[in-house]
UniProtKB/TrEMBL annotation:
Reactions performed catalytically: chorismate = 3-[(1-carboxyvinyl)-oxy]benzoate + H2O
The gene coding this protein: mqnA
Keyword terms, alphabetized: Lyase, Menaquinone biosynthesis
Organism: Paenibacillus terricola
Matches recorded under Gene3D superfamilies: Periplasmic binding protein-like II
Annotated EC: 4.2.1.151
Record flagged with keyword Lyase: yes
Protein name, UniProt field: Chorismate dehydratase
Similarity comment: family membership: Belongs to the MqnA/MqnD family. MqnA subfamily.
EC category: lyase
Protein's pathway: Quinol/quinone metabolism; menaquinone biosynthesis
Pfam families hit by this protein: VitK2_biosynth (PF02621)
Functional description taken from the UniProt entry: Catalyzes the dehydration of chorismate into 3-[(1-carboxyvinyl)oxy]benzoate, a step in the biosynthesis of menaquinone (MK, vitamin K2).
């Protein structure tokens, strides 16, 4: 491992992942030799792949891309069963025109970008052109018909009245497949799983505990979201209640279907197996 801390743990720096980490703090993890690194998904994806992190919450697509190097922590994900509220396509035109138009893509996540490509090709039977950009809605829409934003940036944009149509990719995927969508998982590098099994097991327990405590009482997360990101308590209660953080059989089936479509479209070389840390 390149990092001096054997168990460097990547934390997605968006509100949608807060329940997994809210109580799994550095103070809790330090006795197990672990330390949290907070970044956006695309940065965590690269850091885990390069060996700068031992384990991380990462885009589901990033797991698939490097599945031969990773293992998954059970019972942890960032998912939705329908609307997700923070993976949104903002459009100047109806979908029927956008599906063969120009779409600007955020450069902050792999799962959402490829989910959009799957939906445009397989669900809407379109063939748009894509351009990857920094997540700035106004600039993205200067030369594009629609723009994909994720995370807190998408939430803030959804609060503004810019006269745009807004399409929720979680809802679109559910209409298309009948399944929920898993956007992020927690992956461990295989060599770290072998060398630091007990420490990773302790981090896993801390994250499961954080998830359960957070969902039992959302009030601390809601207060933090209002203070840091704005919005109302009602909005954030609904937001966190809509998201799902389990990774049971139904979630796994939905993710396997996503991988299958990605492989069929050539976005992945092959459909990966889901290999779990024991």
């Amino acid at each position: 491992m390149r990092n001096e801390v054997p168990l460097s743990v990547g934390r997605i720096d968006y509100a949608n992942a807060w329940p997994l980490f809210h109580y799994a703090t550095n103070d809790v993890l330090a006795p197990h030799g672990a330390h949290i690194v907070s970044r956006i998904p695309a940065q965590l994806n690269r850091a885990l792949m390069d060996g700068e992190l031992a384990m991380s919450a990462v885009s589901s697509f990033a797991y698939a891309y490097n599945a031969d190097q990773y293992m998954l922590l059970p019972d942890l994900s960032v998912s939705s069963e329908g609307t997700v509220h923070s993976i949104l396509l903002f459009s100047k035109k109806p979908l029927d025109e956008v599906r063969n138009g120009r779409i600007a893509l955020t450069n902050t996540s792999a799962t959402s970008v490829n989910l959009l490509k799957i939906l445009m090709t397989c669900y809407l039977e379109g063939n748009p052109s894509y351009e990857t950009m920094e997540p700035d809605l106004d600039r993205m829409l200067e030369h594009a018909d629609a723009a994909l934003l994720i995370g807190d940036t998408a939430i803030h944009a959804s609060w503004l009245d810019k006269g745009l149509e807004v399409f929720d990719l979680g809802e679109m995927w559910h209409r298309f497949t009948g399944y929920g969508m898993t956007y992020a998982v927690v992956a461990v590098r295989k060599e770290a799983a072998s060398e630091h099994h007990d420490g990773i097991e302790a981090v896993h327990r801390a994250m499961i505990d954080s998830k359960n405590k957070s969902l039992f009482d959302l009030s601390p997360l809601v207060r933090q979201a209002c203070e840091q990101l704005g919005g109302t308590p009602d909005y954030w209660h609904h937001y966190f209640q809509t998201l799902k953080y389990d990774f049971g059989q139904r979630r796994q089936e939905g993710l396997r279907l996503y991988f299958r479509y990605a492989a069929q479209l050539g976005l992945l070389e092959r459909e990966p197996e889901l290999a779990f840390f024991q």
